[in-house]
Amino acid sequence: MRARTVARFLAASVVGAVAAATVGVGVAAAHVTVNPREATQGGYAKLAFRVPNERDDAGTTKLEVALPADTPVASVSVRPMAGWTVQVDKTKLATPIEMHGSQVTEAPSKITWTADGTANAIKPGQFQEFEISVGPLPEADTMIFKALQTYSSGEIVRWIDEPSTDGSEAEHPAPVLKLAKAPTTDVAATPTGSDNAAKADTSDGADGRAGWALALGIAGLVAGLAGLAFGLLAWRRRTGTGTAAG
After folding, report:
1. CB 72 within 8 A of CB 100
2. Residue 72: how many CB atoms within 10 A of its CB?
3. 25-39, 63-77, 227-241 — which one is most confidently predicted on average?
4. Which residue, of 51, 180, 182, 185, has the fewest CB within 10 Å?
């Protein structure tokens, strides 16, 4: 009886510890993020800033996202959202960047989404995604988008902490987009005309052998069926003769 009580106590303790750990993970993970988390340098990407509401008594009424000044992009377009107004601010570049053969002297620096009244705010227990199309992406390892989340209560949560060098997660981490280098094309791996001809010859030979094999298989099947039919006919004749003789 005592051993059973101890076992139940241990089981309850384990369940409680797992529940506490799960709650902790959920709270830590509920921050502003950018999705997808990775894109390709030099290309264009559709990005979505996912904003969860972490308050029980207020709604999220504004989101401000700053585009990194050290890795500027020439073009940003936003997807309209019903019930929200969006504004894109631009800034003069110290060093112009090139886009499709033209010099770009100013670039988008901040995007602000504002709810058209509290009725359109992100409610407690809900989240919203704010989408943009951006590019060409810079030749950098990452882009850090510092964001400010404003609640209807007037509270502002600053998601501006950059990734730490020791790998630990900050209290208010900024959304981070990782940039991978564009894949290089291997010219040596591209088949030449003679290689294509050789592959065609090999393919034709294989197809011819496959055709002969199929024809022989069908012929064998037909012969087998014919033999079975003749055998069945002979058996029926023999059985009929025996019956008549009796």
Report:
1. no
2. 20
3. 63-77
4. 185
Residue 129's H or E segment, with its range, is strand 127-135
Q: Please name the residues in contact with 14: beta carbons below 8 A apart, sequence gap of 6 or more.
A: none
Alpha-carbon distances of 242 from 19, 79, 97, 167, rounded to whole Å: 86, 91, 103, 95
Whole-angstrom CA distances from 200 to 13, 195, 203 are 69, 9, 5
Quote the CA–CA distance of 210 and 216 in Å, as a whole number: 10
Instruction: Provide Rg for the chain, Cα atoms.
Output: 35
Q: Evaluate whether 31 touches 172 at the Cβ level (below 8 Å).
A: yes
Q: For residue 108, what pLDDT is reported?
A: 95
Residues 187, 180: Cα–Cα separation, whole Å: 21
- Cβ neighbours around 31 below 10 Å, total: 22
DSSP 8-state symbol, 124: T
Contact criterion met (CB below 8 Å) for 49 and 34: yes
First to last CA, the chain: 88
57 CB burial (10 A radius; 0-12, 13-18, 19+): exposed
Place of tokens 């799960």: 22
DSSP secondary structure letters along 66-106: EPPSSS--SEEEE---TTEEEEEEEEEEEEEEEETTEEEEE
Strand arrangement, sheet containing 176-180:
38-40, 176-180, 142-144
- 192-231 pLDDT, tens digit per residue, is 544 444 444 444 444 444 454 555 556 555 556 556 565 5
Identity of residue 209: R
CA angle 91, 93, 97 (to 5 degrees): 125
One-letter amino acid for residue 181 of the chain: K
